[in-house]
Write a structure and sequence with these properties.
Distance between the termini: 26 Å
Strand content: 25-35%
Strand order of the largest sheet: 1-13-15-16-11-10-14
Helix content: 25-40%
Largest sheet: 7 strands, mixed
Length: about 400
């Protein structure tokens, strides 16, 4: 039996040199993270893994779980949920719900996202809780958060109401935000709504708290937060063309600085970085030898176009190299679209390796009897030191 080994082919893509200038975004907040959404590259950070009070930004996790329930069919947007006396006890940001009424899931989602309603969040939490209580839902939030990679998050309620143990890191907030954007693109559109006048109940309480939505800079989410302990924070996202940023900043001293710094983050990202297209889907990245197939080699490509952010005006050294890794003996038959290896792209600037699957760009069938005999004889010749003898 022939044993396959891993083959590594190095592709040098490009290397740019220039004078060294720091790209680190300077924040006056307690914590910050700026992420390129497509690749997950962290472009800037400050105390990214410190558990801090997230205030209303923790509602993003509640919304994530609601979106999961809607997507899985456990909740429908038209379902009407009962408003409990406990839910309406919350002060602060409110949807101004009344105990005993029933409100649609869609209105409650808008109430959480646009109006930052503590009451709306509690109603949704009680409906999805294993024991019917908001505390039970908070325990579920913590467990589900761990499952999607939140390592520094503990929830004690659904809305971020101050509690000494209720904590999230800015990295965790960015992680759950990216999950929402990736998994629920249609439902994510709720985050971009500028107004929601629920039942015209309190007309002045209709505007989205996110100040970035009215600036026409591509911002379409996500959530602000404030308590006296947490300070002012914002979890934001903006898109320009095919490029998207996700960022979190918290611990700012006032609302005006929050708006100014958040806008600066988006402008910094758009000005300092551009996408560098490395490989297009369908283009041959590498030709891989095939073991006993009806073709000697297989063209491998990437499933989706691979682009990475590169510094454009920073003076930062930017080096990009790539390795293609595949088994030395690909066995047939191979179907077009089948994963046959992986592409590893290394960006020196971030000291990060990004991994992308390589897929077959064509079908390869089994070789006939003569192909198999020639392959077997070639393997035998190699073992007894007669390499190349059969080709003479």
């Amino acid at each position: 039996m022939t044993r396959a080994i891993h083959i590594i082919v190095t592709l040098t893509l490009f290397w740019l040199f220039s004078a060294s200038v720091s790209l680190a975004f300077q924040s006056s907040g307690k914590a910050l993270i700026i992420v390129d959404h497509a690749t997950g590259l962290v472009l800037a950070e400050k105390n990214p893994d410190v558990p801090l009070p997230p205030a209303s930004m923790s509602k993003i996790m509640t919304v994530f779980m609601v979106f999961e329930a809607v997507s899985d069919g456990h909740l429908a947007l038209t379902d009407r949920l009962p408003v409990s006396a406990d839910a309406v006890k919350y002060r602060g940001s409110s949807m101004f719900l009344k105990a005993g009424e029933r409100v649609t899931v869609e209105d409650l989602i808008r109430g959480v996202i646009v109006l930052s309603g503590n009451d709306a969040s509690a109603v949704l939490a009680e409906a999805m809780s294993p024991d019917g209580t908001e505390a039970g839902f908070a325990r579920l939030m913590t467990t589900r958060g761990q499952e999607i990679g939140l390592t520094q998050s503990i929830f004690r309620n659904s809305n971020g109401w101050p509690h000494p143990d209720h904590r999230m890191s800015v990295r965790d907030l960015a992680t759950v935000s990216s999950e929402i954007i990736t998994r629920f693109p249609d439902l994510y559109a709720y985050f971009g709504e500028r107004e929601f006048a629920f039942d015209n109940r309190v007309p002045e309480n209709r505007r989205n708290r996110n100040p970035l939505l009215t600036l026409d800079i591509g911002a379409d989410g996500l959530k602000t937060g404030y308590t006296s302990e947490a300070g002012y924070g914002l979890t934001g996202s903006a898109k320009r063309g095919n490029r998207r940023i996700v960022f979190v900043v918290t611990g700012l001293s006032n609302r005006a600085i929050r708006e100014q710094e958040s806008e600066k983050i988006i402008n910094w990202y758009n000005f300092q970085y551009a996408d560098k297209e490395l490989f297009r889907s369908g283009d041959t990245v590498v030709s891989i030898p095939v073991f006993m197939g009806d073709k000697p080699k297989l063209a491998a490509t990437v499933a989706e176009t691979v682009s990475v952010p590169v510094a454009t005006r920073s003076g930062q050294d930017t080096g990009i190299n790539a390795n293609v890794i595949y088994d030395s003996l690909l066995e047939t038959p191979i179907s077009k679209g089948q994963v046959v290896g992986r592409l590893e792209v290394q960006l020196q600037e971030f000291d990060t390796i990004l991994t992308f699957p390589l897929i077959a760009n064509e079908d390869v069938g089994d070789g006939g009897f003569s192909v198999r005999m020639k392959t077997a004889l070639a393997n035998l010749a190699t073992k007894i030191g007669l390499d190349g003898f059969l080709d003479r």
